[in-house]
Design brief:
The chain is an alpha/beta fold and about 450 residues long. It has 16 helices and 13 strands. The protein binds adenosine-5'-triphosphate (ATP) and zinc ion. In the N-terminal section; belongs to the HesA/MoeB/ThiF family. UBA4 subfamily.
Length: about 450
C-alpha cells in the first residue's frame, strides 16, 4: 500500500515538473517573438528589406508574401492608426484582423457594457467580461492577440462634442455601430476631417459594406457618394431595424466585420480606388449565400455635406436630425394616455381575479421563445392585414383586453390602432412590456 502511495506521489511530482518545463518552453518561445527580441535590421543592413524588424518579418510573413502588401505595405500598416467605432458584432471581427495584421495603433470606442446576449457574435468578449466596458474588454483581448501594437479604449459615447478631436488622430475610421444618428455623424465627420470611413452593417441574415470619404490624396475631393448623398433625409425611426428587435445570425456581422478589415488593409497599403469599395456597395445575403456588388448613385451635386455647395462645416445634433435617440435604442414611446396603460404589478393582481384577453403582438419567433400563460399571438404586422376585422370583432366582445410586447412600444401602437376604430373598447397595454413583467412580477421570465 505504501509503495502504491509513494509511486502516486512520485507521479504527481513528475507531472508538476513536466508542467513547469512546458511553461518554461512556452516562455522561451514567447520571448523569441516579444519586443525584447526586437532585433531590428535597418536600412543600413546589406539585406534590402526596408525598415521592418526581424520579429515583424517573422510574425507577418504570411501577409508580407502577398504582392499587394509586401514589405512596404507592412511598413504602412505598422505606422497606421485606425479608429473603430463600436465594439459589437462588427467591431470585434474587424479589430481582431486589424490587430492581427499589425496596425500600429487601434482606437476602439464604445459606451456600452457587455451583455450576455452579445457573446454569440461579439467574439472579443467572453462570459467573464459580462457587464465589463466593451471598449476595455475589446482592448484587453486585442492586446492578448498582438502585444506589439498600441490599443486605446474610449469608454465613451462617440458624439459631436468629442468626435472631431478623437478622429483627427487617426488615418481611417471604421463604422461598426448600429444606429442611424451615428451613421450620419460618421459620414459628416469623415468629410470634415478628411479621414476615410469604412461603413458596415449587419442584421438578420444580411450585411452591407462600402467606403465613404475616400480621397486619392488629402488635397483632392472625396470620391463616391457620402451617406447623405444616398440618404438626404433620415428614415422614420420605426423603419430602422436593430439586432435586439430583429435578431442577427452571429457569422453575418462576423463576415462583414472581417471584410471591413480587409478593405482597411487594402486602403492603408494604397490599393487603387478601382480595387476598393468606393462608389460601390457589397451586399451579402446569408440566406442563399450570395455576394453582390452594386454601383451606388453618384455624388449628389447638391449634397449638404460633400458637394461644392456643402453647408455642413461642423457636426450638428444628429439625434434631432433623426428624431430619435442614438443611446436609447429601445426608445420608450408614449402614445397611449395613462388610462389605457397597466403596470406589470397591476396586471398580475388583476389576472388573479378577472378574465383577460392577452394579445401578444411580438413576432411568432419571439412568442415561441417565451410568453405569458393563456396569451394569444397576433404579430403587429397582422394589424395591417386581412385578419384585422376579425381581431376587432373579437375585441368588441371582451372587457379586459391587454396588448403585450417586449418593451411596451409595439403594444401601444397596436392598442392605439384598435382605439381609432373602437374608441370605447376596454383596451390597455402592458406598460414596459415583458421586460417590466420580468422585473416586477416574475424574475424567472427571460429578458432578451
Ligand atoms: N455613438 C456611439 N458611440 C459609441 N459606441 C456606439 C455608438 N453607437 C453605437 N455604438 C456601439 O456600437 C455597437 C454596435 O454593436 P451591435 O450592432 O452588435 O449591437 P449591440 O448594441 O451590442 O447589441 P444588441 O442590439 O443585440 O443589444 C454597440 O456596442 C454600441 O454600444
Ligand atoms: Zn454627399
Amino acid at each position: 500500500m505504501d509503495l502504491i502511495q509513494n509511486l502516486e506521489l512520485e507521479i504527481l511530482e513528475l507531472r508538476e515538473m513536466l508542467k513547469n518545463k512546458e511553461e518554461d518552453l512556452r516562455e522561451a518561445k514567447r520571448n523569441k517573438f516579444s519586443k525584447s527580441y526586437d532585433n531590428v535590421i535597418g536600412t543600413k543592413s546589406n539585406i534590402n528589406i526596408g525598415n521592418i524588424p526581424k520579429w515583424a518579418i517573422e510574425r507577418y510573413s504570411r501577409q508580407i508574401l502577398l504582392p499587394d502588401i509586401g514589405v512596404m505595405g507592412q511598413e504602412k500598416l505598422m505606422s497606421s492608426k485606425v479608429l473603430i467605432v463600436g465594439a459589437g458584432g462588427l467591431g470585434c471581427p474587424a479589430s481582431v484582423y486589424l490587430a492581427g495584421a499589425g496596425i500600429g495603433e487601434i482606437g476602439i470606442v464604445d459606451y456600452d457594457t457587455v451583455d450576455i446576449s452579445n457573446i454569440h457574435r461579439q467574439i472579443l468578449h467572453t462570459e467573464s467580461d459580462w457587464c465589463k466596458s466593451k471598449a476595455k474588454s475589446a482592448a484587453e483581448s486585442l492586446r492578448r492577440i498582438n502585444s506589439n501594437i498600441k490599443v486605446t479604449p474610449y469608454t465613451i459615447e462617440f458624439k459631436p462634442e468629442n468626435a472631431v478631436q478623437i478622429a483627427s488622430n487617426y488615418d481611417l475610421i471604421i463604422d461598426c455601430t448600429d444606429n442611424v444618428p451615428t451613421r450620419y455623424m460618421l459620414s459628416d465627420l469623415s468629410i470634415i476631417t478628411k479621414v476615410p470611413l469604412i461603413s458596415g452593417s449587419a442584421l438578420k441574415m444580411e450585411g452591407q459594406l462600402t467606403i465613404y470619404g475616400y480621397r486619392e490624396s488629402r488635397n483632392e475631393k472625396s470620391s463616391g457618394p457620402c451617406y447623405r448623398c444616398l440618404f438626404p433625409t433620415p428614415p422614420p425611426a420605426a423603419a430602422v431595424g436593430s439586432c435586439s428587435a430583429n435578431g442577427v445570425a452571429g457569422p453575418v456581422p462576423g463576415a462583414i466585420g472581417s471584410l471591413q478589415a480587409l478593405e482597411a488593409i487594402k486602403l492603408l497599403v494604397g490599393r487603387n480606388r478601382e480595387n476598393l469599395l468606393v462608389g460601390r456597395m457589397l451586399i451579402f445575403d446569408g440566406e442563399d449565400m450570395t455576394f453582390r456588388t452594386v454601383k451606388l448613385r453618384p455624388k449628389n451635386p447638391k449634397c449638404e455635406s460633400c458637394s461644392d455647395h456643402a453647408t455642413i462645416k461642423q457636426l450638428t445634433n444628429y439625434e434631432v436630425l433623426c428624431k430619435m435617440q442614438s443611446k436609447e435604442k429601445d426608445l420608450d414611446l408614449n402614445i397611449l394616455p395613462q388610462s389605457h396603460r397597466i403596470s406589470a404589478t397591476e396586471l398580475s393582481k388583476s389576472l388573479n381575479t378577472q378574465r383577460h384577453l392577452l394579445i401578444d403582438v411580438r413576432s411568432e419567433a419571439e412568442y415561441n421563445m417565451c410568453h405569458l400563460e393563456d396569451s394569444v399571438n397576433y404579430p403587429l404586422e397582422q394589424l395591417y392585414g386581412e385578419k384585422f376585422d376579425l381581431l376587432v370583432e373579437n375585441i368588441k366582445n371582451n372587457d379586459n383586453v391587454i396588448f403585450i410586447c417586449r418593451r411596451g412600444n409595439d403594444s401601444q401602437i397596436a392598442a392605439d390602432k384598435i382605439l381609432k376604430v373602437l374608441p370605447d373598447a376596454k383596451i390597455k397595454d402592458l406598460s414596459g412590456g415583458l421586460h417590466a413583467w420580468a422585473e416586477q412580477v416574475d424574475r424567472r421570465f427571460p429578458i432578451y
